[in-house]
Amino acid sequence: MMNPTLRKKDYKGAIDALLRLQETYNLRVSDIADGHIGRNKTSAPLQATDCFDIGLKAWQVSTSENVCEWMAEAEDRLTKDTNYLLPDILTQSIECSMQMEQEEEEEEEEEEEEQFEDVRALLSRVLKLDPDNVYANQKESHLRRKLKTDMTSKNYKALCRGEDIGVQSATNMFCRYNHNNKPRLFIRPAKEEMLSNEPPVVLFHDILTDTEIDLLIAQAKFKLKRARTIPEGNAPAVESKIRISSIAWLYNLGDKMGLHSVLPRVQDYTGLSTDPQSTEKFQVANYGLGGFYNYHVDDDVTGIEPDKRLATVLFYLSEVEAGGRTVFPKLGISIPPIKGSAAVWYNYLKNGDPNFDMLHAGCPVLLGEKWASNLWIFEYGQEFRRRCGLTRDDIY
């Protein structure tokens, strides 16, 4: 039963967030119901009605096994006041148990990655004999898409939990003080942590001061609105379940007292122009419990922006009690939010093509809240700062 102090939309959003956290971080139903989130104990145990509502929602977004677990938890928490729910709980338990039987049968027939090898070998033989074979081409394309999608999702969840998926080689990682031959950085050099060499992903530590962070959040707090995403085809921006956060846009940051040195500092650190015509306005984002941004790339495929988003600078404006990492599923990179730091990467290769290896995501916030800020640097103005490759193969 919905809490009377909550709007229906907020209540549904809270249930979505709990199920998202459960799936991403492998949380147990009993722990969530008791108010245990990870290693932390909250003061919000769930009632039978809450567990029942979550179980109903799980039909849409989760497995039947998870539905059964929530229904069992709801039954365990019944009281005299909520005993009227028992027939509905038992009905849903029967339904999910029957569905589980069916899913188990399908799982036995499901093709796992290692089982694909024989099929792909046969398809390869067919295509070698007949490259235009329609059936073989369709099947090969289907298997390739399935493997790619499954691996991206698997890597995303593992990286959100802080697990090492063994993609990045530690030999390419290093930390250093770097002055980039900039006078200001001879006094206070950049603290640079190289997370990936090809493609380059850098984490700059202490790029923002606490005072600057407080000013950014203060400027944004009263302008926050629900974040939207732009569908394909240049349609108007809409609220979307793949991005749960609130954002605010800050204009003319260089004119604001206490923040005028941020853009010049970014220019010194990255070597890229941050003149007004070379950067988008600052975007400040707030993620509450369960807030996240599903995996995506930052290149402007809609053509709405006046220029390509050549590079992304992602500032972390707060620590997060648990969750909230930035992860790159194809690169095996997982960045915990460190207050005052900024992650920087290129969205385009030197040959001008989008770099889809830079697929990244903001993981769900497990505890606390997350403040972050994006600055996108356009291609305009970077002609002599990040030169194009001389050949199509010169990409980094």
Explain how this protein is built.
- The protein has 396 residues and is an alpha+beta fold.
- The chain has 3 domains: 8-109, Alpha Horseshoe (Serine Threonine Protein Phosphatase 5, Tetratricopeptide repeat); 113-160; 170-378, q2cbj1_9rhob like domain (Jelly Rolls, Sandwich), CATH 2.60.120.
- The chain has helices at 8-25, 29-34, 48-61, 64-76, 86-109, 116-129, 134-160, 183-187, 210-221, 262-270, and strands spanning 36-37, 40-41, 174-178, 190-196, 201-205, 225-226, 243-244, 246-250, 282-287, 292-296, 309-316, 322-323, 326-328, 333-335, 342-346, 360-362, 365-367, 370-378.
- The longest helix is centred in the middle third of the chain and has 27 residues, at 134-160.
- The protein starts with 7 loop residues before the first helix and ends in an 18-residue tail after the last strand.
Number of helices: 10
Note the main sheet: 9 strands, antiparallel
Structural class estimated from helices and strands: alpha+beta
- Percent strand equals 15-25%
Count of domains: 3
In the CATH scheme, what's the topology name of the largest domain? Jelly Rolls
> What is the architecture of the largest domain at the second tier of CATH?
Sandwich
The poorly predicted ranges are: none
Determine the fraction of residues in helical runs and give it as a percent range: 25-40%
CATH uppermost class of the largest domain? Mainly Beta
Number of strands: 18
